[in-house]
Design brief:
The protein has helices at residues 26-35, 97-107; strands at 15-19, 47-53, 59-65, 82-90, 118-123. It has 139 residues and is of the alpha/beta class.
Length: 139
């Protein structure tokens, strides 16, 4: 992800954007990262934002953007200062994997993402009959 900014630096912490289809687990992931707890979440309408402190000097801002079809056109507005992109897929939802791949390919055509590191996170691996990492399609 490159260098992270320290709190003493005058600039804002690096921004990491979490996107993916609706119900892929983005909000649950973000809640777990920020609180350490597993909590029930509801569908995100708009976005959630929080600061993840990695240690006393290093932090990052996490953006969890709603994944419903009508929200996806708004994703580009959150990419301006994006330093890393995490695309979350529900590894238990085989039927929607082609849709996820198509959505990711379209997103990666955004000029603002040129040179931005991408992580495709296969979520919900605790469920039965999930895709293996080799079965999750490349973008």
């Amino acid at each position: 992800m490159g260098q992270l900014q320290t709190r003493s630096a005058p600039s804002h912490p690096p921004q990491v954007v979490l996107v993916g289809l609706d119900s892929s687990g983005k909000s649950t992931l973000m809640t777990r990262l920020l609180t350490g707890k597993l909590m029930d979440t509801s569908p995100t309408v708009g976005f959630n934002v929080g600061t993840l402190d990695l240690d006393n000097k290093v932090s990052m801002t996490l953006w969890d953007i709603g994944g419903q079809r009508n929200m996806r056109t708004n994703w580009r507005y959150y990419l301006e200062h994006c330093k890393a992109l995490v695309f979350v897929v529900d590894s238990s939802d085989r039927e929607r994997m082609p849709e996820a791949q198509k959505v990711l390919q379209k997103l990666l055509s955004e000029e603002k993402l040129k040179g931005v590191p991408l992580m495709v996170l296969a979520n919900k691996k605790d469920l039965n009959n999930t895709l293996t990492i080799r079965e999750v399609p490349d973008p």
